[in-house]
Design brief:
CATH topology of the domain at 23-213 and 277-330 and 399-407: Rossmann fold
Oligomer: single chain
Strand content: 15-25%
Number of strands: 16
CATH class of the domain at 23-213 and 277-330 and 399-407: Alpha Beta
Largest sheet: 12 strands, mixed
CATH superfamily of the domain at 23-213 and 277-330 and 399-407: Alpha/Beta hydrolase fold, catalytic domain
Shape: globular
Number of helices: 11
Structural class: alpha/beta
Low-confidence stretches: 1-21
Mean pLDDT: 84
Distance between the termini: 70 Å
Helix content: 25-40%
């Protein structure tokens, strides 16, 4: 009897530990949204590493069209350190915040018409560890691009083993901003991993990047400039003098301070960041999302305190490798972004030396010019978004139309 009880207790411990390590839950209601969600949402954690100290949090939204056959996307936000829920509620997801001044209650959510989930299943992943609701059971050590890529790959393998029905769906890695450094490397990692025994291969088809990359003298480093590099220092100083009163994320939008969301003006375009942080810190929201208690203090959209080293100096070798392996790609950029200007993106694409399949042509929305596109022989499509900024949040409807046409193989 005692032995049987002992084994039962051990079994319960193992099961409870496993549930905590790789737990997921269906979310049918979200605080701030009226009524049941009109889409299928799952949230959860995937444990990474042998001891699963790292817990990566995700939001998974099923396609509203045909989830059994539609593409499966993994969305990686930039930063590094920005939560992927930024895309979920601001860029390409099925809900958005209602434009209203915060009054202390739960901010209101409404449905969107432009969600990429109209045609695709999307996993929004909080990474690296420390971003969003992802956390570590042990003190955070050094994190970097290489570790992040390995963790994302492990996450995918484990997530798909828990959701085997999506193994056959066409798979795409997607992201924006600093995601442009990570996404090509993740694609390369998945491609190589598909040839290694014994996990089922991921049905990788390609990737999508929004607004990815003073290089001659600064050698790619503008934040921690070598003091002896006087030419670079002078260029950076001149650059900041010229742009200090310009909203570099969208040059036509009034410049406003978004560094402190506690004191942000409701007139600022980034006031929605304030709403997002107030929403994510509500106990009712954390309960609805099934967040592990005690794993996260104050939630911030962009966690600048994440210890992180940028070890990928150039994504170009990964782009070249991915093209050689036959993966298609969509690179889009807002033509009013000054953080990562469209001309800079065109410059690194040009450095790939791919022959042009189709020269510049406008792509249209409702008989109006929405931007310009050019395609290359390596299955890469480059597109500008007229009036767009640094991320899809500035023109989400246009960006969604562009994505939906490309993912379905339609002419842009």
């Amino acid at each position: 009897m005692k032995l049987t009880l002992k084994w039962l207790l051990m079994l319960l411990f193992v099961l409870s530990h496993h549930h905590h390590a790789d737990s997921s839950s269906i979310v049918k209601f979200l605080p701030g949204f009226e009524g049941p969600l009109p889409f299928e949402l799952e949230t959860g954690y995937i444990g990474i590493g042998e001891e699963e100290e790292a817990q990566l949090f995700y939001y998974f939204v099923k396609s509203e069209n045909n989830p059994e056959e539609d593409p499966l996307l993994l969305w990686l936000e930039g930063g590094p350190g920005v939560s992927s829920i930024t895309a979920f509620v601001l860029e390409n997801g099925p809900v958005a915040f209602k434009s209203e001044v915060y009054n202390g209650s739960v901010p209101s959510l409404v449905s969107t018409t432009y969600s990429w989930t109209k045609v695709a299943n999307i996993i929004y992943l909080d990474q690296p560890i420390g971003a969003g609701f992802s956390y570590s059971k042990t003190p955070l050590g050094k994190n970097n691009d290489t570790n992040a890529v390995n963790m994302i790959h492990e996450f995918l393998q484990k997530w798909l083993s828990k959701h085997p029905q999506y193994f056959s769906n066409p798979f795409y890695v997607t992201g924006a901003s600093y995601g442009g450094m990570i996404v090509p490397a993740v694609v390369n990692k998945i491609s190589k991993g598909n040839y290694i025994c014994c996990n089922p291969p991921i049905n990788l088809q390609g990737y999508v990047l929004g607004n990815p990359s003073l290089k001659r003298f600064c050698k790619g480093s503008y934040f921690n400039v070598d003091p002896s590099n006087t030419k670079c220092l002078k260029l950076v100083e001149e650059y900041y003098k010229c742009t200090e009163n310009v909203n570099t994320h969208q040059i036509l939008v009034p410049n406003c301070d978004n560094t402190n969301t506690e004191n942000i003006s409701p007139d600022c375009i980034y006031y929605v960041y304030h709403l997002l942080e107030r929403w994510s810190n509500k106990d009712s929201v954390r309960k609805a999302l099934h967040i592990h208690k005690g794993t996260k203090g104050e939630w911030v959209r962009f966690n600048h305190s994440v210890p992180y080293e940028r070890t990928i100096k150039s994504s170009i070798p990964y782009h070249m490798s991915n093209s050689i392996n036959g993966y298609r790609s969509l690179i889009f950029t807002g033509d009013h972004d000054m953080v990562l200007p469209s001309f800079a993106t065109q410059a690194w694409i040009k450095s790939l030396n791919y022959s042009i399949a189709h020269e510049w042509k406008p792509w249209m929305v409702n008989d109006q010019n929405a931007g310009y596109t050019r395609t290359y022989s390596n299955k890469m499509t480059f597109a500008t978004i007229k009036g767009g900024g640094h991320t899809p949040e500035y023109l989400p409807k246009k960006t969604s139309i562009l994505f939906q046409r490309w993912i379905s193989g339609q002419p842009l």
